[in-house]
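Hi R.,

Here's the chain you asked about this morning:
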Amino acid sequence: MEQKPIRKNISLRFEFCSTYVSSADHFTYMRNVNNDKGSGLDLHNHTRLSLNPAWDGIGHYSTELLTRKAQDVIRRHAKSEKPLFLYLPYLAVHDPIQVPERYKEPYKDLIPDEERLTMAGMINCLDEGVGNVTDTLKEIGLYDNTVIIFSTDNGAATQISGNNWPLRGLKSTPFEGGVHGVGFIHSPLLPDQIKGTTSHAWMHVTDWFPTILSGLTGGEINTMKLIDGIDVWKAIM
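And the predicted structure, written out as tokens:
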């Protein structure tokens, strides 16, 4: 794949819609802090010129809401010649374990544990969301020039029905069950010989930034100070 350097002095349009902290109710976005001595809405719409609470998001399930926001960004970008970087960190599957009932229906006869059933529904909704975002890229003609990176951030929290078997440990521990994650890269731009292959090589989450900036887009990182991670794009390819 031809690598072109990032253009100098490129103008950036910044948008943000999500929560500030690690978790909140998936429908109300209310977050209790300091042992319930204070609470507030933790859902925000930001641009470079405004900082606003996203009151209109209340009542909409987080995965579906963030999917629609992502689709809106993609559609508005359709006629732009500038590159698009979209970071979509869903709140699923993170506690509290919540999901609309319809996403649990396919598994009700398979999973007797209610919390585990709800988590399966959350994953079902997440899978649908990723599919809808991908379909939107195809709809407006960006898919063929897009690289999709899907990755977890840590191992599962077993105290809320997560499962890291056969690895030992859980989220927030240094054992492999807590720090060993999986992910995939999908793109029509990838060479045919590596499509469908699996790599067991190690990388760290901090490697994504230099890998995307340098390996994928051809930008320079050797002038940056205190950068964490290394460019592993050649290993991926």
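Helices lie at 62-76, 114-139, 176-179, 208-216, 233-236.

Let me know if you need anything else.
M.
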